[in-house]
Amino acid sequence: MNNQEAKLRIGRIDFTNVWPIYYYFPELVASSKVAIVKMVPTGLNRAMAAGEIDMGPISSFAYGECFEDYVLYPDLSVSAYGEVNSILLFHEKPLREIASGSIALPTTSATSVNLLKIILEKFHGGQPTYSYAAPVLETMMEGHDAALLIGDDAIRESWRNRKYMITDLGQEWAKWTGQWMSFAVWALRRDAAKRHPELVQEAFRAFVQSKAKAHDDPSAMIHEACRTIGGEKTYWRHYFHTLCYDFGREQWQGLQLYYRYCHELGFLPKPAAIEIWSENTIARVTE
Predict the structure, then answer these.
(1) CATH level 3 topology of 87-177
(2) Which top CATH class is 8-80+181-265?
(3) Which residues have a Cβ under 8 Å from the Cβ of 245 and sit 6 or more positions away?
(4) What's the N-to-C CA distance of the chain in angstroms?
């Protein structure tokens, strides 16, 4: 379907970390008025902000930048309490020794980049310098003390790596805060929610059903991950099991802390309010 003809334009991050929520979605949403558009996280963030996409799993930081325009679906996120396995900092020296070093960043994520800045600057008291580069580890490490990779790029390098120390940003966040971290949230533009309330509800139900179906029997999804990305079944079973796709009060609390730190460090002009969509209401989360 042409995106211009669709009543609801749904973005999709083309990373394995969102597969459970999307894997069965096309067969569960009955409406012909839905178009799915695949993008990297930063592209989807921009498209949502511009009104070119109506809903999708945007970076949590991107929600914080434009939260007045969005509401969040409940029960849907890419979150972790501890290891996330696909947001990894590669470095040759211990983290405390490179906290004021030179860091190479990918151009594909806002949430993870700012999470790393919180870890280095707030938790370790560092004053690092940053530069952006294509997600090729050996190139990124030339002239840098560390390189951040996310998504499938990080996964592949973690398999190949025999040279660098690896810090999992999910683990580091949990170690310092004791909180969950939500890396992506399912945002819905407020104007789309008003225009197509029934279609928005239909899409939400299909997402939740896809998540439940993938959780109950992940074998097809794991087989496809092995075929298209590589790796062993045991790795992917552990990966999908470790990530959390829920979005409830525990995840909200961790995300509110993330937004507060982003505001304190000047990444956001003000802490974002988390507002949760439901069929009949929109409710603001309070601490």
Answers:
(1) D-Maltodextrin-Binding Protein; domain 2 (3.40.190)
(2) alpha beta
(3) 20, 21, 76, 77, 78, 79, 211, 215
(4) 42
pLDDT digits (tens, 9 = 90+) for 170-228: 999 999 999 999 999 999 999 999 998 989 999 999 999 999 999 999 999 999 999 99
Walk across the sheet containing 146-150 and list its strands.
129-132, 102-105, 146-150, 87-91, 165-168
Give 129-174 pLDDT, tens digit per residue.
999 999 999 999 999 999 999 989 999 999 998 899 999 999 999 9
Pick from 26, 85, 24, 20: which is nearest to 57 by CA? 20
Token pair of 142, please?
Answer: 């030339």
Please tell me the pTM assigned to this model: 0.92
DSSP classification of residue 244 = B
SS3 at position 170: helix
Map residue 162 onto helix, strand or coil: coil
